[in-house]
Amino acid sequence: MKNNARFSITTVQKSGGETDRFETFALGSVEKSGETCTFRYTEDGKQKVSSTITVSDGGSAVIERNGDFSSKIFLEKNELKPFEYSTPFGTLNMAALADTIILNSESLGGKILFRYTLYNDGIVFSENEVTVSYQIEQ
Question: Coil, strand or helix: which one is 67?
Answer without folding.
Answer: coil
